[in-house]
DNA sequence: ACAATTAGTCAGAAAAACTTGACTGGCTGA
DNA sequence: TCAGCCAGTCAAGTTTTTCTGACTAATTGT
């Protein structure tokens, strides 16, 4: 049960078919479930639900109920999630 | 077929059960097939072979035949692979 | 000559990830 | 009251990834 590669855990948090896109979109502002499913081309409810749940469990996203107008739920980057932003930018600038 | 997330491609290059560890070890020096399989606890020939081949195809690793004593093959980071080192360090320092 | 080490490949099985479609239940506007 | 949006869940099926064990074939040490 050793790891020997500290980056592995962080990498795993963003691995999967939809997580990178979800993370990228979360950088730009709060997310809503149905909107995500509609915006992420080729995705589906179930996969997005699982990705959101895992990212929340890993502490990348935070879930809030917004008691307003249509009464909805928002997912946004946590402090931990925000720490990954510079890494993301660095990856983008590598191209 | 859009992407909308430039970091996705880079992330995918290091995704998979063994690639992060292989990359990490490549930072420390050239790798050899059988040694990798022995050192990476829980791995197997086939998976390591596939990971190495893909990482080579993606241009992260370079393969060289070393015509010496036991006549063996070495995998080492390419220029492209080396560009990822700072990202890796940043991920490590995030813990 | 024989055994071990090198670096693999192959087929098939098992496990993990992803998709589909149906369904739930609260809330809101007409 | 009825339709539609919200945020999901569930079971089943498909696809992708990973693992196992057997095998190849050149090179090297004794």
Describe this structure in words.
The structure is a homodimer. Chain A has about 100 residues and is an alpha+beta fold. The first copy, chain A, has a single domain (about 5-90), classed as Arc Repressor Mutant, subunit A, CATH 1.10.10.10. In chain A, about 50% of the residues lie in helices and about 15% in strands. Chain A has helices at about 5-15, 20-25, 35-40, 45-55, 80-85, 85-90, and strands at about 60-65, 70-75. A two-stranded antiparallel ribbon of chain A has the order 1-2. Chain A is globular, with a radius of gyration of 14 Å. The model of chain A has no long low-confidence stretch (mean pLDDT about 95). The interface of A and B includes residues 2, 5 and 14 of A. Chain B binds a DNA duplex (30 and 30 nucleotides) through α4.
Helical segment tally of chain A? 6
> How many individual β-strands of chain A?
2
Mean pLDDT of chain A: 94
Helix content of chain A: 40-55%
Q: What is the CA–CA distance across the termini of chain A? A: 35 Å
- What is the CATH superfamily classification of chain A? Winged helix-like DNA-binding domain superfamily/Winged helix DNA-binding domain
The strand order across the widest sheet of chain A is: 1-2
- 3D shape of chain A: globular
Oligomer: homodimer
* CATH fold type of chain A: Arc Repressor Mutant, subunit A
CATH architecture of chain A: Orthogonal Bundle
Largest sheet of chain A at a glance?
Answer: 2 strands, antiparallel
Largest interface: A-B, 25 and 25 residues
Secondary-structure element string of chain A: HHHHEEHH
């Amino acid at each position: 049960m050793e790891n020997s590669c500290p980056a592995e855990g962080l990498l795993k948090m963003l691995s999967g078919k939809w997580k990178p896109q979800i993370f990228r979109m979360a950088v730009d502002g709060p997310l809503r479930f149905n909107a995500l499913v509609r915006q992420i081309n080729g995705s589906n409810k179930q996969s997005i639900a699982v990705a959101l749940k895992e990212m929340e469990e890993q502490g990348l996203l935070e879930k809030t109920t917004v008691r307003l107008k249509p009464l909805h739920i928002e997912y946004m980057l946590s402090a931990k999630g925000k720490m990954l932003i510079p890494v993301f930018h660095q990856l983008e600038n590598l191209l």
